[in-house]
Amino acid sequence: MIQDNVEARTAQFRDYLAAGGKVEATDWMPDAYRQSLIRFIEMHANSELMGALPERDWIMRAPTIHRKLALTAKIQDEVGHAELLYRLVEDLGKPRSACLDDLIAGKGKFHNTFHYATYSWADVGIIAWLVDAAAIVSQHALRDSSYAPYARTMQKICWEESFHMMHGRDMIITMMNGTDAQRQMVQESLDRWWPALMVFHGPATPPEKDKDLQWWRIKAKANEELRQEFLNVQVPRLREVGLVIPDPELRYDAEQGRWLYGEPQWDVLRAISRNQGPASAERIGFRRLSYEDGQWVRQVMQQRSLATQANIA
Amino acid sequence: MLEPNALSTAYSTSVDEGEVFEIFQQAGRDPLPRHGGNLRAPDPELAVHYAREFYGRRQESDKIWIIPRRRMVELLADANPAAVAEQAASEVSGTPETFALFAQQQPGRPMLWLHNLEASGLAEAEAAALQLAREHAGVYLRFWLCPLAAIALLDLPDLLKPPLDRSYRRLDGYDIREKLAQARQRVKAEEASH
User: Do A177 and B43 touch (CB under 8 A)?
Assistant: First the structure.
């Protein structure tokens, strides 16, 4: 009887989503929807936090004071995004501390591009331009998410990511206008990152098999559609400054109205999804180290918090 | 499908990690303070500084309101007035107070501050909100109410609009037009020489 009730309510809920309905944090929602939101947004939050690590390595090596300030500001944004997203996860029922514990235990997931090592200053530019551009494509679509607090957070995050993309593009164009050695450094960086960018939006799962998309409307666009949007905008922008995209099969097919490309490295993506990417262990280890280093700060804050709560009570 | 729910009791929060503050922000383009999101802070003083970092560091706010979530009550515009009155009466004593009233007018859109209202306690304030919903049928979806005294205001220009050059934090701080033209020219010249 109770079970029937939940099923009927879930069906009603899905009809509501299918009609474009929006869900607020305090609304009733099926547990499966709640769990999907937690998994999806927690991974997003983890990615923002872990994404700060490869960039952090370059703060002290930034070539000018302006670049250093901009990079520091970007990193602050990314960590700020993580905090906003962990808040959403907390309101859905999983505490931030549990998310961070899972992350440093190697159980938390984070985005594929943050499982790679960085080798040059050009990597910082390519990440800021292209990884952020790929992220903006996904995040723009998430502004239509059925979960309204997530959709609204995306508005803010997209606005800040657009700074990062401009910052990255500015860096890359500056280097492309520089010496042959600089141009070569940028080309090598693009060669390194392109395969990771091609799997960024995930496999071309048929939309009807993607539950986050089809059932719960957490996502509003299919993976392949996002990848095509990314290619549409960025391929001409890369080519116009003299960069060569390292995929001989990449071309726009006017008949099909889409980009064709060589088979992306799905096996690497699968390994990364098990946290077995090229730099996964190092990154997770560094996150654990930072977490332990910050323990005394959390203790001080906890004491402040307990004292305040005692005053309120 | 939607149920009335007091925000303060809807979430389980662990005390030792601080409490949650709802944040409203207003920039030049905003006619009214709008809900920006929320944050968790160890105490009200740090909440103000966190709000500045999370909601004002890129000069996007002229004014930020910081409100402890436990002081905020949520009310659906189509809630049953009798049931609401009964619940409110059990929660708060009826002392005269000014309340801030916030409303969501379209699905998915952020809460906006509407106006302040005088009431002798939360029950009366909630009744006034529901009355407003009846007078303007179909305009409001849900309300938030909090005592005006619970709102901490941050509007210091030194914190929100620092007079330093922060061009790297502004979108117009990047002008790539000349550089891009130079790069395109170089590529064209190289293509021509091949």
Answer: no
3-state secondary structure of A298: helix
Q: Is A167 within 8 Å of B168 (Cβ atoms)? A: yes
Mutation test of the interface with chain B: which of A65, A67, A91, A306, choosing the one with the most B Cβ atoms within 10 A? A91
Mean pLDDT for all residues in chain A: 94
Helix axes A148-176, A180-198, angle to 10 degrees: 150
Q: Where are the domains of chain A?
A: 2-312
The ipTM assigned to this model is: 0.90
Q: Which class in CATH covers the domain with range A2-312?
A: mainly alpha
Q: Amino acid identity, residue A124? A: V
Q: Residues A46, A106: contact at Cβ < 8 Å?
A: no
A177/B contact by beta carbon, under 8 A: yes
Residues 260-279 of chain A with CB under 8 A from chain B are: none
Mean pLDDT of B84-110: 83
Q: Are B57 and A242 within 8 A, CB to CB? A: no
Question: Which residues from chain A sit within 8 angstroms of residue B38, using beta carbons?
Answer: 87, 91
- Predicted confidence at residue B175, as pLDDT, reads 84
Judged by CB atoms closer than 8 Å, whether chains meet at B1 and A16 is answered as yes
For residues B169-193, average pLDDT: 88
pLDDT recorded at residue B91 = 60
Using CA atoms, how far apart are residues B8 and B124, in angstroms rounded to an integer? 19
Distance between the two ends of chain A, CA-based, in angstroms? 42
CA distance B161 to A183: 38
Question: Chain A: nearest CA to B116, how far in angstroms?
Answer: 24
Q: Which of A63-72, A298-307, B11-20 ranks highest by mean pLDDT?
A: A63-72
CA distance B35 to B65: 9
pLDDT, average across residues A13-31: 95
Residue among A66, A87, A160 whose CB faces B39 most closely: A87
pLDDT at A119 over 90: yes
Sheet-wide strand order for B19-26? B73-76, B142-147, B96-104, B112-120, B34-41, B19-26, B63-68, B152-154
Q: Domain segments of chain B: what residues?
A: 7-193
Return contacts of A30-39, CB within 8 angstroms, 24+ apart: A30/A6, A32/A216, A33/A216, A34/A92, A34/A93, A36/A211, A36/A212, A36/A216, A36/A218, A37/A88, A37/A92, A37/A147, A37/A150, A37/A216, A37/A218, A38/A89, A38/A92, A38/A93, A38/A94
